[in-house]
Write a structure and sequence with these properties.
about 65% helix; about 90 residues; mainly alpha; DUF6761; single chain
Length: about 90
Amino acid sequence: MTSQTFEDPEAIKHFQSICDACQELISRYHSPSELKLYVDGYIHALRKTNRLTTKDLEKLEILTNRWILDPSSFIGPNGDINDLFFMRSND
């Protein structure tokens, strides 16, 4: 996964911020498609402000989309596979 490392530590902070926000949205029963809209808006704002390099923005977009699609990203704090968000949603 070395090809997916960020060049700027600020990109890591943005990735962590996106993941934290998505976890919060999931706890309020937002769907994966709503998470995708949130992430798209966040990345769009980063593009407009030129806060990250194009390369880091592309990596951030790829990694966050992959993270949202991975159901194991949303296992509840008890670790029970039955608490996966995607098993409860109608999305």
